[in-house]
Backbone:
């Protein structure tokens, strides 16, 4: 899928959100130089690639315009690529993906899985770049009004397959499609746990699977203290536990905010996997 990246274990994708309002790290890396430095720290601590995003997708988030998104992500992508870092761009806009690929990004990570911008899959096809297609129903402002499923895992998988088929119809090479069940996107906390318990159903789709549980609200809910959600900056141990389980279940990559523990975890999962292969 990506030359130069490990093939024998689950990959670790470090997150750099260049946003003022992401739930997990909003406002911390808004300045390009700080964001690049943080991306390099993630790589130094074990990330295989770095996911750069300029638009928050937390529940309820409003969209930003294209010019602002470009202003946030391009200098960070260029800065990281110049240091030899493999970068994915977390965007729902084909125009932003195109400029990011031109700046050296290697993967498009579209949380809408091609649904938000009808040009996205054609762009990925033209560029020949790998693309992450995440299960997605609605923009973040309203997505949590759309958490009804008749059969959770089967419905998510079927909807994701529609997204995959649309991408292939637009010319994307199936070998360059990565799927993601989209934890927290039109899903309740309880539904996230069910999805995680059935990752095999997504692995069986025949594409590499990306799992992004890191610091999400359902972990804060699990770890409530005195009735309060565990704060985002103290959800990393639980995030690593999920990364370990996801890697053991066959995930291709885990997306995390803190890379060093995840980097160890995926190696443990790979080593154990050898014993059961
Ligand atoms: N979640 C977020 C952002 N980007 N990309 C993929 N592929 N899958 C996800 O679940 C996902 C994503 C939101 O969380 P953040 O604040 O950690 O970026």
Residues:
């Amino acid at each position: 899928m990506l030359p130069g990246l490990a093939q024998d274990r689950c990959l670790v994708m470090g997150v750099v959100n260049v946003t003022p309002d992401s739930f997990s790290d909003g406002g911390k890396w808004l300045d390009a130089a700080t964001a690049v430095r943080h991306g390099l720290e993630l790589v130094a601590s074990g990330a295989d690639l770095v996911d750069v995003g300029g638009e928050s997708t937390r529940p309820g988030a409003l969209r930003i315009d294209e010019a602002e998104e470009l202003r946030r992500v391009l200098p960070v992508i260029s800065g990281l690529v110049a240091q030899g870092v493999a970068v994915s761009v977390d965007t729902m806009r084909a125009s932003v993906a195109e400029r990011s690929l031109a700046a050296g990004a290697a993967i498009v990570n579209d949380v809408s899985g091609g649904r938000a911008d009808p040009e996205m899959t054609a762009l990925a096809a033209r560029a020949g770049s790998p693309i992450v297609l995440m299960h997605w129903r609605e923009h973040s402002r309203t997505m949590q009004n759309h958490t009804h499923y008749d059969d959770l895992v089967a419905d998510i998988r079927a909807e994701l397959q529609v997204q995959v088929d649309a991408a292939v119809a637009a010319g994307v090479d199936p070998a360059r499609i990565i799927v993601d069940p989209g934890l927290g996107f039109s899903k309740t906390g309880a539904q996230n746990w069910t999805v995680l318990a059935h990752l095999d159903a997504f692995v069986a789709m025949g594409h590499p699977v990306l799992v992004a549980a890191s610091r999400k609200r359902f972990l804060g809910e699990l770890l409530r203290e005195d009735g309060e959600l565990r704060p985002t900056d103290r959800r990393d141990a639980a995030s690593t536990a999920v990364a370990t389980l996801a890697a053991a279940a066959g995930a291709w990559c885990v997306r995390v905010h803190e890379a060093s523990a995840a980097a160890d975890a995926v190696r443990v999962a790979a080593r154990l996997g050898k014993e059961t292969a």
